[in-house]
Amino acid sequence: MISLQSLFGKKDVFYDLLEASAAQARKSVQALHGLLSAPAGSNPSLETFSASRREDKKITQQIDEALCRTFITELEREDIAALATALYKIPKTVEKIAERIVISPERVAGVDFSRQTALMDAAADTVVTMISELRSKLHLERLKVLNDELQKIEGDADKLVLDCLRDLYNSGRDPITVIVLKDLYDLLEKVVDRCRDAGKVVSQIVLKNS
């Protein structure tokens, strides 16, 4: 017998899963913060980042399965899928950064990443807030405040990467270190971009349903 509940869907299931995905994305960013601020000579591991990415992938698959089983959803199906994809890209990008640090720790020793981590933390926190408030029908005024915060963070990240590259190109470091750090700076900025992309999907959802 076909269950009406499975056809029409449990009201909160997608909110629960999206919030879990956002929390996992923030967890990966916090782990990266710890890795980038770890003292020289420490023995970093990729397991935390791999586990976070795997868990978020699992959540994304649960969202896909729920969409297949559910006939009617409170949010548009395409929006749910787009938001799940945008959120998954955050821990995936974070894992790439961790991989590069682990394979060449001597190249990043002594480099100050505190400004990048502060921006990533702020962006991830803002995304978590936006998604948690979707459940309670995020209002346009509140959306504008949060979206403006994300846009400012993203703009600050763009400026920061240019400043870092300017300093790097004039630092006199060996070419391999320059390449390694440029790659890291670009990826760190991309984490903020991924958060902005998730926020953009939330904004589109709220505008559609306002």
From TrEMBL:
InterPro entries assigned: PhoU-like_sf, Put_Phosphate_transp_reg, UPF0111_domain
Q: What is the superkingdom listed in this entry's lineage?
A: Bacteria
Segment forming the signal sequence: none
Q: Which family does the record assign? A: Belongs to the UPF0111 family.
The record, for PANTHER family, names: UPF0111 PROTEIN YKAA
Q: What is this protein called?
A: Pit accessory protein
Organism encoding this protein: Brevifollis gellanilyticus
